[in-house]
Design brief:
two-stranded antiparallel sheet, mainly alpha, 37 helices, disordered N terminus, 686 residues
């Protein structure tokens, strides 16, 4: 099984790998943490290895001396290149022998010629290092050069779909056009018809489109519409320059509505049945709905009575009205509109409405909403659970919620564990962790990208190390992916082990997906704070997937993703001296402060892990706002399901679920039960 890393969803770590390869779209900057998805019913469990496998034993004194000499030679070669002493660098290259990073010196020697080295040299590098990070960097630079030189047949020879940046796509379409591909310009229209300016590299292609009359008035209006909806009003104004008089008049009106959507409540300004006018009206109604959905719907009905709107124009506007009717609390009106038309039954709209009804504990309405969902959505774990819960609350004659709970209880998930609790059953962890084949593991560790990744990490090039790691994964079969995951764990790269399992769709390999990372530090923090070890593990796993140098766009840092200001305050409160922001990238320091902060939240919310987890993600102020002053308690499952922020909702579900998994991982139990929710967490109140 060959793994394509580009199919993996981004991991929410905030780690930025600023590199030419990333900019060309060759690999994702990061990968998904891996939600609790497909599972099997195997229960074999591999204990964490406490010793280095024999095949990975420390090198002999002779081998170590050789490696140290190679490292010195490597650094000497780099210095020679920096000093432009290329003959000396080539001499050092020969001396490197089988050193894993030899390819980097070869690469740098080629790059001394910019991108102007002979294509034969590139071919030799590709043959020596196929499907590698450095090969793709060289090929990417070569493609840029070949496009500039208009050597289109050669461009096509080296281009692959992996070079997915917009600039490279434009170059490829130019190459196709100039090598007699009659469909190239037709395919280019999709790159032109977007709501933002494209890279300058696309300008020659777009000039060809204009000159070939491919940009029709309809196509131009599509891009103008996209620019308005993307709030790129300067681009929209630019596009008006080549419109005819009538279309320009419509465009001017559209710009007015974009600046003042309430103009759409003046129907005399919108007389006519042209598609352009329909688009403007629908846009205005969508914007008015954000503040006053009932007013928006009132005017929409007036307009719809006067003209027949195209479905592709009307349906999105109606969906916006339904969305804001739901959010403003007009649930009956939203229900009515959804039941009115099948075309409006978008799953996200129905789910949002179902949650609003769930918050009101309107079980009949929840069932009615679920019935409107597409069949596939009705059958997912979430809505199977809530249908069963609704029937249980309503005591529906003929319904069998217990049977649904029984089916769900076989799953390793939030809803599976909730269902098991309803039936007082053990949780099914479905752990199919199996040890790697020692020979495969040895081979993976000593050759190609994994060897380069390991050596880069050891010499402090962590970003490059990760990129080499990702490149290796995308060419591995399942056996090799498991081996790579074990190597990552053995080397202390816990995050990379998690990434390996997700990349290989090895969802049930729990020993690598949920490693007992930084166990000593977490154990000590648990003792110091009187917290459950499993909860600290779960928070760190959810926050950073154990990437010790993780940094989010907001600035949160380290394993438990602490904001610098929060960490500074916590350090002062805890008596931690000489704390600096840089210390947050030290696992022990981060765990110490993160667990203290988590303990404070648990104290603030009376030991309720649901509320503390929500506060860790969204802030305690928001959680207090969500709690409000309800007249009666809410069941915990209802409260979690109706958290307004999707991210926080998923976060809380993951943390509580991961806590169960870590209890299992620490205690080495096949089946456990009853600890998803504690007695003080089963109902939520202020």
């Amino acid at each position: 099984m060959n793994i394509n890393i580009n199919t993996a969803t981004r991991l929410s770590l905030g780690i930025t790998l600023q590199s030419a390869a990333q900019k060309m779209g060759l690999i994702p900057a990061s990968l998904i943490t891996g939600l609790l998805l497909s599972t099997t019913q195997l229960h074999a469990k591999e204990p964490d290895s406490k010793t280095v496998p024999p095949t990975l034993a420390a090198p002999s004194a002779t081998d170590y001396a050789k490696l140290q000499k190679q490292r010195m030679t490597y650094q000497a070669a780099k210095k020679a290149i920096d000093a432009k002493k290329y003959d000396l660098a080539r001499k050092k290259l020969v001396e490197l022998g089988d050193y894993p990073l030899k390819a980097y010196i070869e690469y740098q020697l080629l790059k001394t010629k910019g991108n102007n080295f002979p294509l034969e040299d590139l071919d030799q590098f590709i043959a020596a290092y196929p499907n590698s990070l450095l090969t793709d960097r060289l090929v990417g630079g070569t493609l840029t050069r070949l496009a500039a030189e208009k050597k289109w047949p050669e461009f096509n020879r080296y281009y692959t779909s992996g070079f997915s940046s917009t600039a490279m796509q434009c170059r490829h379409l130019m190459a196709r056009h100039y090598t007699q591909d009659a469909k190239a310009l037709d395919d280019a229209i999709a790159l032109w018809t977007v709501g933002q300016s494209q890279p300058t590299e696309c300008e020659p292609l777009f000039t060809l489109l204009e000159n070939s009359q491919k940009i029709t008035p309809t196509v131009r209006w599509q891009r103008f519409d996209a620019a308005i909806k993307n709030r790129e009003l300067s681009l929209a104004t630019f596009l008006m320059r080549k419109m005819d008089k009538q279309q320009s008049a419509y465009a001017s009106l559209y710009l007015e509505v974009a600046k003042n959507p309430k103009l759409v409540t003046q129907p005399k300004k919108f007389v006519g049945k042209a598609n352009e006018l329909q688009t403007i009206i629908a846009y205005g109604i969508s914007k008015v709905a954000q503040n006053d959905p009932k007013l928006a719907w009132q005017h929409w009905e007036t307009y719809e009575a006067q003209r027949l709107f195209a479905a592709e124009i009307a349906t999105p506007a109606k969906k916006e009205v339904i969305k804001y009717l739901t959010r403003k609390g007009y649930l009956a009106e939203a229900d009515q509109l959804l039941s009115y038309s099948h075309s409006l039954r978008e799953a996200s709209l129905i789910e949002e409405l179902a949650r609003e009804n769930l918050e009101q504990l309107n079980w009949s309405a929840v069932l009615a909403n679920i019935a409107l969902l597409p069949e596939a959505d009705q059958q997912n774990e979430r809505w199977l659970y809530w249908a069963a819960r609704s029937h249980q609350e309503l005591k529906t004659v003929g319904a069998n919620p217990q049977a649904v709970y029984q089916e769900l209880a076989q799953k390793r998930s939030w809803y599976g564990f909730l269902a098991a609790d309803h039936l007082k059953l053990d949780y099914k962890l479905q752990d199919s962790s199996v040890p790697a084949n020692p020979e495969v593991k040895f081979n993976v560790s000593r050759k190609g990208p994994m060897a380069r990744a390991r050596e880069l990490w050891l010499i402090g090039e962590k970003s490059l190390a990760r990129m080499e790691w990702y490149y290796g994964l995308k060419t591995f079969n399942t056996e090799q992916v498991i081996a790579a995951g074990e190597l990552a764990r053995d080397w202390g790269w816990y995050n990379s082990g998690i990434v390996a399992m997700i990349t290989g769709n090895l969802w049930d390999h729990l020993s690598l997906r949920f490693p007992l990372a930084y166990n000593d530090a977490i154990a000590q923090a648990a003792v110091n704070t009187q917290l459950d070890k499993a909860l600290i593990f779960a928070i760190a796993r959810q926050e950073s997937a154990f990437a010790e140098d993780a940094q989010s766009q907001a600035g949160a840092r380290g394993l438990m993703q602490l904001m610098p200001a929060t960490a500074k305050q916590q350090a002062a409160h805890s008596g931690v001296k000489n704390h600096t922001t840089a210390d947050l990238f030290k696992p022990e320091h981060n765990i110490q402060l993160g667990s203290k902060y988590l303990g404070g939240l648990l104290t603030q919310f009376k030991g309720n892990r649901i509320l503390a987890a929500a506060a860790y993600n969204a802030g305690p102020g928001r959680v207090k706002q969500w709690l409000g002053t309800p007249a009666k308690e809410k069941p915990a499952d209802v409260w979690v399901e109706t958290i307004p922020f999707k991210e926080t909702r998923q976060y809380v579900q993951n943390v509580l679920t991961y806590s169960v998994i870590y209890t299992y991982r620490m205690d080495d139990k096949t089946d456990i039960h009853g600890n998803l929710l504690r007695d003080n967490e089963r109902n939520i109140s202020r």
